[in-house]
Task: inverse folding
């Protein structure tokens, strides 16, 4: 069975500092991987995804993530945090073979950005 | 990117009544839509997979007679919470898979409060 673990339910950084949100997955076969952001009382917005090809994926708002098969990880980074980045971030996976779009989510990480 | 719209965004209903939430894909056809439930400060839990023209597939533990899902067209899926109880109060989010299969877009979510 697939699972997703986000290390750290709460991450706090200063404005301008590096953002690193960790995500590890467990899957019998390499899955598709996603990062979503959720602002208060809103739905989810896709930040980026990995399906095939280059393992370093660039997304919106300056975020990027690197798929590391050997480490079963898909950590999300941003070189310089903005106040507007404060939100809830979810890592998710779906089975590559099934291709149904049925996502398994991590527990979420709350990103706080301090001025 | 693709747009998925949910309506209503907020609804309050009396205990024992039924309430319907709509999920529409605005600029693409979605053969498959998904319904999630999210409790405050928690991750998303998949409730069911909605396939156009066929019965929904429910996740283990989700009462199919309580959460009725209808996917009557390629752009519309509805979730009806029947005989609602206060414990059904939650944030309900739908998502839709694009035709290419590996991108999933989420609606804005619907807050349901049962009083």
Result:
């Amino acid at each position: 069975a697939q699972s997703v673990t986000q290390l750290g339910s709460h991450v706090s950084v200063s404005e301008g500092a590096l953002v690193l949100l960790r995500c590890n997955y467990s899957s019998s076969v390499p899955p598709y991987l996603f990062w979503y952001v959720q602002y208060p009382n809103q739905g989810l917005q896709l930040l980026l995804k990995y399906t095939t090809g280059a393992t370093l994926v660039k997304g919106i708002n300056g975020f990027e993530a690197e798929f590391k098969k050997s480490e079963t990880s898909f950590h999300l980074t941003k070189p310089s945090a903005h106040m507007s980045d404060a939100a809830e971030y979810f890592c998710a996976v779906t089975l590559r073979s099934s291709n149904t779009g049925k996502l398994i989510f991590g527990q979420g990480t709350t990103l706080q950005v301090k001025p | 990117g693709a747009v998925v719209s949910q309506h209503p965004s907020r609804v309050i209903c009396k205990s024992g009544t039924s309430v319907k939430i709509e999920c529409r894909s605005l600029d693409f056809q979605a053969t498959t839509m998904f319904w999630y439930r999210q409790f405050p400060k928690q991750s998303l839990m998949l409730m069911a997979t909605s396939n156009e023209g066929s019965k929904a597939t429910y996740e283990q533990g989700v009462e199919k007679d309580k959460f009725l899902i209808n996917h009557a067209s390629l752009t519309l899926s509805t979730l009806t919470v029947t005989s609602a109880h206060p414990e059904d109060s939650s944030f309900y989010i739908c998502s839709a898979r694009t035709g290419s299969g590996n991108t999933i877009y989420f609606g804005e979510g619907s807050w349901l409060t049962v009083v």
